[in-house]
Amino acid sequence: MRIDIVSLFPEFVEQCAGFGVTGRARERGLLDLHGWNPRDWAEGNYRKVDDRTFGGGPGMVMLVEPLRRCLAALRQADPLPPRVVYLSPQGRPLDQARVRELAALPRLALLCGRYEGVDERLVQAEVDEEISIGDYVLSGGELAAAVVVDAVARLQEGALNDAGSASQDSFEDGLLDCPHYSHPVEHAYGTVPEVLRSGNHAAIARWRRQQALGRTWQRRPDLLAGRVLSKADQALLDEWRREQGR
Ligand SMILES: CC(C)(C)c1cccc(C(=O)NCC2(NC(=O)c3cccc4nocc34)CCCCC2)c1
């Protein structure tokens, strides 16, 4: 998969993707990242990429023309036409279903805003879709772009080792994760649950599923809304709630 990052700070996103799973995906040729800076396509000595907003008020707006030229150049850099995504608070909230769809595309161009955002004419003319990573104020779209890169990179075939893909599968069913423990068994902070040391893999799998269901019900009931649990899962959750005295 090829991802082109359009940003005034493209190296920021590239560096975020330089570690761990995403770094390995790039080394393995599973992910091809290219940074593009609209400033390289801006005119004049100051290479102006922003200007005052019409209608008055505070803040600057990213100009159409440098972005248009920059996008034209990145389109020409590879015959594959990119899906152009503008990371924006006005976008559709990102979730794993959308990540899976994006990860299946051959090429993505991620446009990151700064200042007050991008001239709307550029958005209307060039952007295929807007995506938001959440409802809080950020200084730029680069962190959102880094989130998208990370999430789609790990879904590239061959990006995860066996352990990674197994844990990915458990996340795929949309439940929160069960608790995790390692050495030592006894610690001032507590003892590792007996079942995890029993060697009884059926009991361990049951306990983990029950913990995932209980924690999801308790902390993120919205993830269970509109979802019909299997009889087995419902029984596990009911038992968990009884044991919690809830
Ligand atoms: C949501 C909320 C609080 C009601 C809101 C309402 C109005 C503006 C913002 C805001 O943050 N403007 C600044 C701006 N943010 C983002 O790019 C951005 C923010 C959040 C999630 C994102 N996902 O992708 C990009 C995202 C960066 C500078 C260029 C203009 C956009 C926020």
Question: Mind describing the biggest β-sheet?
Answer: 5 strands, parallel
End-to-end Cα distance, whole Å, is 47 Å
Number of helices: 10
Rg from C-alpha positions? 23 Å
Question: Any low-confidence stretches, pLDDT <50, length ≥5?
Answer: none
Would you give an account of this structure?
This protein has 246 residues and is of the alpha/beta class. It has helices at residues 10-16, 20-27, 64-76, 96-103, 120-126, 142-153, 162-172, 201-219, 221-224, 231-243; strands spanning 2-6, 32-36, 50-52, 60-62, 83-93, 107-112, 129-132, 186-187, 190-191. The strands form 3 sheets. A 5-stranded parallel β-sheet has the order 2-1-6-5-7, with helices on both faces. Helix 4 links the parallel strand 5 (83-93) and strand 6 (107-112). Helix 3 packs parallel to helix 5. The radius of gyration is 23 Å and the shape is elongated. The N and C termini lie far apart (47 Å). Bound molecules: ligand 4FN.
List keywords for this structure.
246 residues; five-stranded parallel sheet; 10 helices; 9 strands; binds the ligand CC(C)(C)c1cccc(C(=O)NCC2(NC(=O)c3cccc4nocc34)CCCCC2)c1
Q: What's the topology here?
A:
Elements: E1 2-6, H1 10-16, H2 20-27, E2 32-36, E3 50-52, E4 60-62, H3 64-76, E5 83-93, H4 96-103, E6 107-112, H5 120-126, E7 129-132, H6 142-153, H7 162-172, E8 186-187, E9 190-191, H8 201-219, H9 221-224, H10 231-243
Parallel strand pairs: 1-2, 1-6, 5-6, 5-7
Antiparallel strand pairs: 3-4, 8-9
Helix pairs in contact: 1-6, 3-5, 4-6, 8-10
Bound molecules: ligand 4FN.
Short description:
The chain is α/β, with parallel strands linked by helices. It has helices spanning 10-16, 20-27, 64-76, 96-103, 120-126, 142-153, 162-172, 201-219, 221-224, 231-243, and strands spanning 2-6, 32-36, 50-52, 60-62, 83-93, 107-112, 129-132, 186-187, 190-191.
